[in-house]
Amino acid sequence: MKKHNYSAGPCILPQEVFEEASKSILNFNDSGLSILEISHRSKDFVAVMEEARALVLELLNLEGKGYQALFLQGGASLEFLRVPYNLMKTNGKAAYLDTGTWASGAIKEAKAFGETLIVASSKEANYNYIPKEYSIPTDADYFHCTSNNTIFGTQLKSFPTTSIPVVCDMSSDIFSRTIDFSKFDLIYAGAQKNMGPAGTTLVVVKEEILGKTGRTIPNILNYEQHIAKESMYNTPAVFAVYTSLLTLKWLKKLGGINAIEKINEAKANLLYTEIDRNPLFKGTVVKEDRSTMNATFLLENQEHQELFDSMWKKTGISGINGHRSVGGYRASMYNALPLESVQVLVDVMKELEKNS
Q1: Would you place residue 215 in the very low, low, confident or very high pLDDT band (cuts 50, 70, 90)?
Q2: Is 193 assigned a catalytic role?
């Protein structure tokens, strides 16, 4: 039975990426060696790292604009720490927008380095909307936001304009929609949503914002060190970087971010239309802030849960149980999820309506 993978992460990747990556496990580049055993200093892998870093900047339209792309380790959670270490000045302060679990995690880490201002928060409403009216202090060292909130199903549709550096955690919607990425001075994203398997984290940083904190930064946490060593300061996650490269090449062949955005909008529109039409379901998020990547919804009557769960499981749907913070269901529709999988879920929802 075909599986329809709605997992929030690690998540679905393109089938052709799985096939190519699996070949590399047995024999990478006809070397007779597995990608899992080659040296990260080998000519073959250095070429992978160089191509992956260059392709990131190409897809984000940041080539020649003073940015560096890095593949690091520790997940986005380490970037919660690394960002203030590299950007918050001694006796400085930073501004944060609190829109969910991961944003609050970043805020917690920043507080260890200095004054951390929460410019706005939707916590009081269980993060079911994106705050709109807030001001960003111009004397802060940087402003931090989270573009998409995986757990709660909200997404920033626009970003504030400010004179200070802008940092964005794009872990769950990187490469999914067209944005002027040059508006951001630092972007970070765990690979395990739209890019590759868990194990590596993408950081895209404008070099001119670095080296201004006045503090000594441990080398392993210092972006400038990782730039100088071309993402090879320590042994990188070889397989995760290679698989990320394959996914980026798949995206480029598809037509880039412009092309995938249209597909993602079609998937989201299909599912949200059914959620709004079907009297058995309701969304959890203010409509204008609904995420294209993660649709969160509930049953109006819990008496239907047992039947609904049995129905979607029989069709091969996997991974749509909601996070405990929200309950209900969460359909994660990352880049590689095909439209046909969304149609299968919508058909089940319609069938439940008929049988109820």
Answers
A1: very high
A2: yes
The model's pLDDT over 39-75, given as tens digits with 9 standing for 90+, comes to 999 999 999 999 999 999 999 999 999 999 999 999 9
Active-site residue among 93, 102, 250, 312? Answer: 102
Q: Are 55 and 49 in contact (CB under 8 A)?
A: no
Q: What is the DSSP letter of 149?
A: E
Please confirm, yes or no, whether 309 is among the known catalytic residues.
no
Listed in sequence order, the residues at least 6 apart from 189 whose beta carbon sits closer than 8 Å to its beta carbon are 76, 169, 170, 171, 172, 174, 195, 201, 202
| Whether 169 is catalytic | yes
CA 265 – CA 176 distance, rounded (Å): 10
* CA separation for the pair 48, 50 (Å, rounded): 6
279, with CB counted inside 10 A (0-12, 13-18, 19+), is exposed
CB 53 within 8 A of CB 231: yes
**Catalytic-role residue among 193, 206, 250, 289:** 193
CA-CA distance, 118 to 140, in Å (whole number)? 11
Q: What pLDDT digit, counting tens, does each position of 145-196 carry?
A: 999 999 999 999 999 999 999 999 999 999 999 999 999 999 999 999 999 9
Question: Residue 292 in contact with residue 177, Cβ under 8 Å?
Answer: yes
HEC-encoded secondary structure of 36-62 = CCCCCCCHHHHHHHHHHHHHHHHHCCC
